[in-house]
Design brief:
The protein has 154 residues and is an alpha+beta fold. The protein contains six helices and five strands; from the N terminus they run ββαααβββααα.
Length: 154
């Protein structure tokens, strides 16, 4: 499994991994993810190409949180300080922890971009997370899969 080390705008380094099917289940609970480019345009004051869908935004934020917590290793800062991204209030964090909310925006966006790039196969993961198709594929003679076997056994 590929786990590259990336350098963040804060100069911290961390290992990342690609998204897995369970990240979708635990993260968003569904598959639509907010468009990071549209969010960046909106944040900079530029008009996004399309309005941002509130449901996609909510789902995207859950997924972003899951990526930061599940797909990112500890941040290693210049000087050797090592901090794990955690899901608890900043005032409860130990010296070796950083609350997901206090992670600098630039670092968070870079992690999200890098994980998404590494997860280029995420369409396959999304298809796996969607489950099996509702209809079965036809068999060799165009009949429903397995019908040939049933006919032969009668």
């Amino acid at each position: 499994m590929e786990r590259p080390t990336i350098v963040l705008p804060s100069q911290a380094r961390c290992k990342i991994r690609r998204l897995q099917m369970m990240d979708y289940a635990i993260g968003a609970g569904d598959l639509p993810v907010a468009d990071l480019e549209a969010l960046a345009k909106a944040k900079s004051g530029e008009q996004p190409d399309q309005p941002i869908d509130p449901e996609k935004l909510k789902s995207g934020m859950k997924m972003a949180r899951a990526i930061l917590l599940r797909c990112t290793g500890p941040l290693i800062y210049p000087g050797g300080l090592k901090r794990k991204i955690v899901d608890k209030p900043f005032y409860d964090c130990d010296d070796n922890e950083i609350a997901v909310e206090e992670l600098p925006d630039e670092d968070a966006v870079e992690i999200l971009k890098q994980v998404n790039a590494l997860s280029a196969v995420s369409k396959e993961v999304a298809a796996q997370a969607a489950g099996f198709p509702e209809t079965t594929a036809p068999g060799r003679n165009g009949s429903p899969l397995g019908a040939d076997v049933r006919e032969a056994s009668v």
